[in-house]
Amino acid sequence: KIMLAEKMFAEGVVKQIKDYLPPEYQEMDYRVTERLKNNDTCRVGVSISSPDEETERVIYVEPFYEAIKDGESLEGVMEKIAGQIKGSDEINSQIQGMCIKDFQQAKSRLSVTLINTNANRRTLSHMPHKEIEDLSMICQISGPVADGMGMLSVTDDIQKMWKVSKETLFDTALANVRESDSYVMHELSSIVNETIMGSMFTAENILNVPEEAVLNSKEPMYVLTNTDRIRGASVLLCPKVMDKVSRMFPEGFYLLPSSIHEILVLPKDAMHGYDAASLGSLVREVNETQVDREEVLSDRIYEYDKSCGAIRQVPESIDRRREMER
Known about the structure:
Helix content: 25-40%
Shape: globular
Mean pLDDT: 86
Distance between the termini: 17 Å
Number of strands: 13
Structural class: alpha+beta
Radius of gyration: 22 Å
Largest sheet: 4 strands, antiparallel
Low-confidence stretches: none
Order of helices and strands: HEEEHHHEHEEEHHEHEHEEHEE
């Protein structure tokens, strides 16, 4: 019902938006669009395109629809949408610059992202991917844009345009991930303090401790991610980081998928009564009640197998009656 209401709102935006835009935006094409996002969630937006642009930009309507529901005036909301359309010019040009047609130019921007396999069947049907446990690796082109990081998923069409094999594509993207120095690990309590205190407090990157160090902290949980804290779960694919975490916790540790952006590390000597089954239940409960559906990674927990440099699912954490596939 909410999707239908948002779609009707988007149709109204398309009909009226030109009244709020200057002359140079009058010849652009405005259409209602539905886009498939992570975990096959669907978002409603207004697409804006013109003949001289290779890509179209999309303004998603959900926050504006919510503003209307909260009592904001229609005129005020339409002004905000128009402002976002005008402000998207620079970002759109930067994103077009990321759409590099030549693989040799694009390969330095390639990275790998982890998503849930079962929850993304439709998405994965038109893009190259490799499965690892219950997850799938997909490739993305990334680059800085105004106010953040722009990402473009590599589809079958892009791979075909590049004329490269799936193996070459993933070997290149994984090499970039594994050579990256952008991964960080923080005490969970430090992240909380950073959130509360803002710029007055910076969480320490524990990965900077000496190679031979064994972590003696009494902290019960740690956060693994990247410096941007965007799609940071890809750290699971970086053996040099995971090997270092293994050296820090010689008694072993569990990996809890907090979201597609970060992984929680729980040392086994700090379990405080939890076992793998109860940790799996905790992850499922948090995913259902606290994490946006679009940002959920998995309902399962993992261990790291240092002998082969890869994660493994913990069988006791799986409840197949409550899998996240929908």
